[in-house]
Every structure is written in structure tokens, then in C-alpha cells.
Amino acid sequence: MSLKTELQLMLDTYSEDFRARDVDACLAFFDEDCKFITPRGVFRGRSQVEQLHQSWIQENHAEREMQVQQIESIGNHVYAIWRFRDLVPDADTGKNAFCEGTALGVIRLDPDDGWLIVACSSNFDADQVVAPVAMTPAKAVA
């Protein structure tokens, strides 16, 4: 199986877990010290990523699809770019609408836990507006 196919299967499983609203299963794909950068802020560590996932579920993010576009492997790390499609609350209407965007992930192969997301930067396409989440991300480190 190619590395790209392996990562796609990982993202497909994560998406299935997300649609099932299984936050613990989603978190299993993240390194303990991960960083998740979103338009809402920077979330550091699994506990903050858990809060982010809980907020998405509370906001009724019902769908999530991801498609690997490009990968680069260096040692036991992979740098991957993927497109995503998510059903999210529209900031103007409050109704759910599909938004699309791009993510850049740094993924590490752990001998015990398999592929773990070390860092991810996720941004919606420029014309997409997302309602703010009621939570505080990690403070920026200078």
C-alpha cells in the first residue's frame, strides 16, 4: 500500500469517527503534544484539541470529508496537504452550509500508536466565513 493511500485511510477513519461524534476515537489520531492551528486560534495538546472537537460537535458539524492532495516523507515524518469539506454553521445565517478548505499536517509514525498528527494548520477557503466558537485557544508564545 502506498504511503498516500495509507494516510488517506487514516483521514477516512478519522472522518468516520468524527461523523459518529466519537471524540475519543478522533483524539487517538493526535500526538499528546500536538498543535492544531485553525481560523479560531491555536490549540495545543490533546486536551485543547478535545475541547475543539467537543465545540464542533456542539455546533452540529455533521459532515467531514478529506482528500490527500500531496505528501512528502522525511524519516518517520510525513508532511501532507489535504483538502477538506465540512458542514458548519454559517456565520451570517446560522444555518449549516458546506465549507471547504486546505490543511497542512505534520504526521509522525509512532511504533506503538501508528500515524499521529503532530501539527496541523487548517484554513477555510477565502470566501468562507465560519461562526466563532465559544472557547479560548492557547495563548501565542512569543
The Rg value, from CA coordinates, equals 15 Å
Count of individual helical segments: 3
Fraction of residues in helix: 25-40%
Taken from the alpha-carbon principal axes, the silhouette is globular
Domain SnoaL-like: 14-95
Protein name: SnoaL-like domain-containing protein
Pfam family, one: SnoaL_2
Account of the 3D structure:
Mean pLDDT is 86; it is low at 132-142. Strand 4 and strand 5 (96-110) form a beta hairpin. The chain has a single domain (3-124), classed as Nuclear Transport Factor 2, Chain: A. The chain is α+β, with helices and mostly antiparallel strands. 25% of the residues lie in helices and 44% in strands. It has three helices and six strands, in the order H-H-E-E-H-E-E-E-E.
Brief synopsis:
The protein is α+β, with helices and mostly antiparallel strands and 142 residues long. It has helices at 3-19, 23-27, 45-58; strands spanning 30-38, 41-44, 64-74, 77-89, 96-110, 114-124. The chain has a six-stranded mixed β-sheet, covered by helices on one side.
List keywords for this structure.
3 helices, Nuclear Transport Factor 2, Chain: A, SnoaL-like domain-containing protein, SnoaL-like, NTF2-like_dom_sf, 142 residues
